[in-house]
Design a protein that fits this description.
Elements lengths: L2 H14 L16 E6 L4 H8 L7 E6 L10 H11 L5 E7 L9 H10 L4 H9 L4 H4 L6 H13 L10 E6 L6 E5 L1 H9 L1
Parallel strand pairs: 1-2, 1-3, 3-4
Antiparallel strand pairs: 4-5
Length: 193
């Protein structure tokens, strides 16, 4: 049985048995927060449980490394929408130890892409279009520095209210232990003075 067939078969049973009822909520986050975190599979259930989050509590945006890499990219747009349209009052950037983005090498990524059929012609086309693949495919050396950079990009965005606390945290992907690396309350309070 293919993966999609397995998913569709399970889904049919899920809906027929009304298992969705325990997850019913609305589009506004009950805890009025938006979280930017990594797409790492270890965090799928661990992070919400480590934070005592349930369905409907938070808006969760996932990306490789929990990185906000561009002030006008889709991650930042999602944060702005969460704040202005979905009533989020706080932002949490949560990176994690042992992240796959740590030390990510663009040459290795491109070599693997080529091994899966991406041609040199396509790579060159992207380069000629002004895409800096080395920058775009580079990870980070230190997760704490990366979280702080993303926090600063959000805080300094021209559409972000200064009174919104933007926190930086790091989670341990085995234990769920959270470390606060940037307290958004202190920054927001200083911005109001």
């Amino acid at each position: 049985m293919s993966l999609i067939s397995e998913i569709m078969e399970y889904n049919k049973s899920f809906v027929e048995n009304k298992e969705y009822e325990q997850f019913l909520t609305d589009k506004f986050p009950d805890k009025k927060m938006v979280i930017i975190t990594c797409m790492d599979t270890r965090l799928t259930e661990l992070l919400p449980r480590a934070m005592n989050l349930h369905n409907g509590d938070a808006k969760v945006i996932k990306s490789a490394g929990a990185v906000v890499s561009h002030p006008f990219g889709s991650i930042m747009r999602s944060v702005v929408v969460a704040v202005y349209q979905l009533e989020a009052d706080e932002v949490l950037v949560i990176g994690h130890h042992d992240c796959g983005m740590t030390g990510l090498n663009p040459d290795q990524v491109l070599d693997r892409a080529k091994a899966r059929g991406v041609t040199d012609e396509m790579v060159n086309l992207l380069k000629h279009a002004g895409i800096n693949l080395n920058s775009w495919l580079t990870g980070f050396d230190n997760v704490e520095d990366s979280v702080k950079q993303s926090v600063n990009m959000i805080r300094n965005h021209p559409l972000m209210p200064k009174k919104i606390p933007v926190h930086g945290l790091i989670v341990h992907p085995q234990t769920g232990k959270l470390d606060l690396v940037d307290d958004g309350y202190a920054y927001a309070a200083a911005s109001r003075e």
